[in-house]
Amino acid sequence: MKRSKKEKRNYGSKIKTAVALALSTAFLLPGRASADADILRVGDKGEKVEELQRTLRVLELYEYPELEGYFGTDTRSALMNFQKEHGLEVNGVADQETFRAMDKALDEFYPEINYIRTMRLKTVGDDVKALQQVLKTMGYYGTRPDGIYNANTASAVRTFQFDYGMAVDGIVNERLVKKINSVAASLRPLREPTKEQLADSLPENNANAEKASDRLYRTDAVKMQWSAVDKAWPLGKVMKVTDVETGISLNLKRTGGINHADVEPCTEEDTDSLKEIFSGTWSWQRRPVIVEISYITSAASICGMPHGENNILGNGLNGHFCMHFFESTDDDGFDLTDKAHQKAVDIAAEYSFNKE
What are phi and psi of 210, to 5 degrees? Predict the structure, then answer.
C-alpha cells in the first residue's frame, strides 16, 4: 500500500514522537521493566507506597505519623530492616516476595479471634491474648498482651464498643468478636476484606444520636488542657456542667482525681439530672459536656457509671464519676488517654444544646 507524501510525513512524525516518549521514560525510570509494575522502589509514589508505609508502621518499623505516599530514604531504610529480619535479599526494593513475607508477618498483629466463650474480667487464655493484640494494633489497648482480662482490657473493650455504637458493658460476646474481627480485617494492610467483613466493620446505627444532631448548635467551648483545669478546679469546688445533647445542667463537685477529675453530684436533684442525661440507666458510655470554669466554657466528657469511693452524703448514690478534659489520662499509672473520652471532648468543643 502506497502512502501519500502527507501521510508519510504524519507517519514519520508519529514514529519520532513514540521514540521520544520511550527515551524519556527510559531516562526517568532507569531499569524499570513493564514486568516490574508491582515492584516499589525509591522515587515511587501513590496509594501503593502509602499502603507499604502503613504496613511498615504496623510492623513497628516506620515511625513517622504521616503516611506521605512517597518512597524516600526513610521508607527504604525501614524496608531493608524488615528484609534483614526475615532473611530476604536486603535491597530496599518491595517485590512480591517481600510483600508475601509482610502479609505473613501481619498475622501476629492481626490474629483472628476465635470465639469459644464470653470474655469478661478475670478471664484468662489465648483468646484473651488475641483480643488484646488486635485491640492494641487498632490503638485501643496500650500495654503488652498477657492473656489476662484485666481492667485495662475492659476499658479498651468499652472504648471500642462506644466508637462502634454498641452497648458499652466491657463484656466480649460472639457478636462483639465478629465486629472486632471485621473492623480489624477492614484496617489490615495488604489484604482486602470480604464484602461481609466490610459491611460489618461500620459503626452501628444510633437513632438517638441522629435525633440529637438536629438539636445541636455551635458553641464557644474550648478544649482546655487538663493541666490548666487541674489548677482552676481544685478539690471541693463546685462547677456547673451541661450535657451538650440534652441541654440538662447540674452542679458537680470535684472530690478527687490526679490525671482527670473525680466528680460527684451535690444533691439528689443533681443525681436525678445526671441519670436523666444517661436515659435513666447508669452506663460506661461517655457523654460530651461543657463546664463553666473561671469564665471559660471548657469541653469535657463524663462517663455515667458511679464507682469507687464517695465523699458527698445524701446525694442519692454511692461512688463518683470520672470526667476527662483535653489531654487528661487515666489514673492507672500508664498515662494513656481514653479515646472515647477524647472523642466526646472533641464533640463538646463544637456543639452545645440550644434550649430555645
Answer: -65, -40
The CA distance from 285 to 163, in Å, is 10
Rama region for 106: left / alpha / beta (φ>0; ψ in -120 to 50; rest)? alpha
pTM tops 0.85, yes or no: no
In this structure, the dihedral spanned by the alpha carbons of residues 132, 283, 315 and 353, taken in order and rounded to 10 degrees, is 120
Q: What is the DSSP letter of 107?
A: T
CA 344/CA 287 separation, integer angstroms:
6
Reference 300, options 334, 332, 254; nearest CA is 254
Sequence-ordered list of residues with C-beta below 8 angstroms from that of 21, at least 6 positions apart, any chain: none
With vertex at residue 160, the alpha carbon angle to CA 157 and CA 165, rounded to the nearest 5 degrees, is 125
Q: What is the DSSP string of 2-69?
A: ---HHHHHHHHHHHHHHHHHHHHHHHHSTT--GGGTT-B-TT-BSHHHHHHHHHHHHTT----SS---
- And the C-alpha cell for 184? 480489624
Taking residue 295's Cβ as centre, other Cβ atoms within 10 Å add up to 6
Domains of the chain by start residue, with CATH? 39-106 (1.10.101.10), 126-204 (1.10.101), 216-353 (2.30.110)
pLDDT digits (tens, 9 = 90+) for 239-293: 999 988 788 999 999 999 999 999 999 999 999 999 998 888 888 888 899 998 8
pLDDT digits (tens, 9 = 90+) for 228-240: 999 999 999 999 9
Phi-psi label, residue 20: left if phi above 0, alpha if psi -120 to 50, beta otherwise: alpha
Read off φ and ψ for residue 256, nearest 5 degrees. 180, -165
DSSP letters spanning 198-212? HHHTSPPP-HHHHHH
